[in-house]
Design brief:
Blueprint: H1 14-73, H2 76-96, H3 100-110, E1 115-125, E2 129-138, H4 141-153, E3 159-167, E4 173-181, H5 189-195
Antiparallel strand pairs: 1-2, 2-4, 3-4
């Protein structure tokens, strides 16, 4: 028995090679199609974003021009007037928070027997806060000093000083005091100045 291939053309396994080449070609075509679709998608997205950016820049330029026109129509006198009105409103609010009852309760607890308060006038000072001008009548200068010391001891009168003192015709001491009044809950002077 003869076991050799006597054909003129020998048989090769061409089908397997052709199959692998076909699979490789399909993969290359699929990768190319994927890349082409991604490039087209990015190109469309880039075009769309560029259009949006140019519209946004045009809108920003339009808004800048509108702001410039509005600034040109603003009257500096009107701004100054509004600023003064706001300052006055803040002063009224500060005055409204001032409690006369609390102040007179403090005076009642600190007032010596021989001292009488004849007038109290509060003022709002931007640097120092609430400044009280207190007119008192006393039998002696020592009584006024005692009253001043007791006010300082309360902690809400950080500074108390006499402005003017003299005896009257009946021998009583008439004294004008100036006191910084800082009740708990009142805004510090620096905060009020910054708000204005």
């Amino acid at each position: 028995m003869i076991r050799t291939n006597l054909s003129t053309r020998p048989f090769y396994n061409e089908r397997a090679v052709h199959s692998w080449l076909l699979i490789a070609a399909i993969l290359v075509v699929a990768a190319t199609l994927f890349n082409v679709t991604r490039v087209l998608g990015y190109s469309r997205s880039d075009t769309q974003l560029a259009g949006e950016a140019s519209r946004d820049e045009a809108r920003a330029a339009e808004l800048r021009q509108q702001a410039y026109r509005l600034r040109a129509t603003v009257d500096p006198k009107q701004i100054e007037f509004s600023s003064n009105e706001a300052r006055q409103a803040n002063e009224l609010i500060d005055r409204r928070t001032f409690s006369w009852t609390e102040l007179f309760n403090r005076f009642e607890t600190t007032l010596p027997d021989d001292v009488r308060i004849t007038a109290v006038r509060p003022e709002i000072d931007k640097q120092r806060g609430i400044v009280l001008n207190i007119a008192v009548v006393a039998r002696s200068n020592d009584d006024v000093s005692t009253f001043m010391e007791r006010l300082k001891e309360t902690g809400v009168f950080p500074e108390v000083r006499p402005i003017e003192e003299h005896p009257d015709e009946s021998g009583m001491w008439q004294t004008s005091l100036e006191a910084i009044y800082a009740p708990p809950g009142a805004k510090p002077a620096a905060e009020r100045a910054a708000r204005r």
